[in-house]
Amino acid sequence: MAFPNSRSIPDLLSDAVGQLAKLVGNEFALARAEVSEKAKQVGRAAALVGAGAVIMIPALVLALLAIAAALRSSGFSDAMSYLLTGGGAIVVSAMLIWVGLNRLSSDALKPAVTLDEIERDKSAVKEMVR
User: Which of 11, 13, 18, 31 lies at a CB distance of 3.0 to 4.6 Å from 7, suitable for a disulfide?
Assistant: First the structure.
């Protein structure tokens, strides 16, 4: 008995391939949008870091000179007060650089939403094929 809306296997296969192509196109569009958003996020972060650094440099120099002056007035020699102040500044700046580089790691910038969608789509395609 033939059903009035029954479709042939080639028609069903053609529809499945068409839907798969549309799905892949949608995934690429999602990936492009997510990567674009991540790039904008990096750009905004870099601009803020740059602006903060420009403003921070004179303030940091004055603060380091004040610390060195305080060390000198507490009995340290000029050379030792500058050495201690500079060493402390190096340690703090190294920690800040390390934290900043970790935030720009590949894991932090990975398009997680797109990867999750692709995994779900793979599962859906496997179910369709079965």
Answer: 11
